[in-house]
Amino acid sequence: MEIIIQPTAAAATAVAARVIARLLNEKPNAVIGLATGSTPLLLYRALIDMKLDWSRVTTFNLDEYIGLPKEHPQSYYSFMWENLFRHINIAPENVHIPDGKAKDIPGFCAAYEQRIRDAGGIDLQVLGIGTDGHIGFNEPTSSLASRTRIKTLTPQTRQDNARFFASLDEVPTHCITMGIGTIMAARSVLLVVSGEGKATILRDVLQGPVTPQVPASILQFHPSVTVV
Ligand code: GLP
Fold first, then answer.
1. What is the position in ligand 1's atom list of the atom closest to the CA of 137?
2. What pLDDT does 154 receive?
3. What SS3 string covers 87-100?
4. Which atom, in ligand 1's list, is nearest to the CA of 39?
5. Bridging pattern class, strands 31-34 and 124-127
6. pLDDT value of residue 215
7. Which of 32, 97, 104, 185 is the least crowded, having the fewest Cβ atoms under 10 Å away?
8. 39 C-alpha vs ligand 1 centroid, how far in Å?
9. Which string of DSSP letters, residue by residue, matches 66-92?
10. Active site residues
């Protein structure tokens, strides 16, 4: 595990953006796993400014709320198109985001896993962490071997994310998320964490026991993780 500590979020973002730029340079048809949240937002702005060639890149997003239509401003679909995809030359057919309105959710989840396999697996998975140590929406007590599936959001995560909605009641209660096993199958992982509010959980992730109570702690067992 490579841990890179930077003095500001902007400096950390620049380091993380360079990791992705290097991958796209070495492998123009890379498969990249993407995350949402305020942390990757800075990273996506930096990537847009770098004017990289995304024409052969394939992406898979970690997660999506269940029940929000794609066009809802807080859907992760809207987040990704608004904050990254519409600003880069990615082919829309190469973009994959879980469908929070899928009628057959287990069927959709199995197909999502199959699409990742068909694409040759994920070369680099971008991650942030929730204040409870979740990755994607794999909340504490998630199975460390889990694959893409439906999950219930914890009260803490709903509270954390309520700032993006008009009220707490509007925050969805369920989501589709890649599993911890799906994330661990990525060939490399780029975890970006910033702010004092995440310091304690990041210590637990990097130096505490590996436990489903802190889902991101499993990354201690991944052979290729960069933490910025
Ligand atoms: C959401 C996402 C996670 C993200 C987390 C933290 O719960 N599903 O992938 O890491 O938010 O977001 P932020 O960076 O805004 O703290």
1. 8
2. 92
3. HCCCCHHHEECCCC
4. 14
5. parallel
6. 98
7. 104
8. 7
9. SS--TTSTTSHHHHHHHHTGGGS---G
10. 63, 132, 134, 139
Between the CA of residue 50 and those of 15, 18, 33, 188, what are the distances in Å? 13, 9, 19, 22
What is the full per-residue pLDDT of the chain (228 aa) written as tens digits? 999 999 999 999 999 999 999 999 999 999 999 999 999 999 999 999 999 999 999 999 999 999 999 999 999 999 999 999 999 999 999 999 999 999 999 999 999 999 999 999 999 999 999 999 999 999 999 999 999 999 999 999 999 899 999 999 999 999 999 999 999 999 999 999 999 999 999 999 999 999 999 999 999 999 999 999
**Rounded CA gap, 33 and 67, in Å?**
22
Instruction: Give the start-end residues of each E strand in the chain.
Output: 2-3, 31-34, 58-61, 63-65, 95-96, 124-127, 149-152, 174-177, 188-191, 225-227
- CA–CA separation, 154 and 108 (whole Å): 23
**Ligand 1 in reach of 59 Cβ (< 6 A):** no
Quote the ligand 1 centre to 214 CA distance (angstroms). 14
Tokens of 91: 């082919």
pLDDT at residue number 113? 98
Paired with 227 in beta bridges are 3, 191
**Distance between CA atoms of 15 and 4, rounded to whole angstroms?**
8
Give the model's pLDDT for residue 168.
Answer: 96
Cα gap 138→140, rounded to integer Å: 7
Contact by Cβ (8 Å): 6, 43: no
């990354």: which residue's tokens? Answer: 219
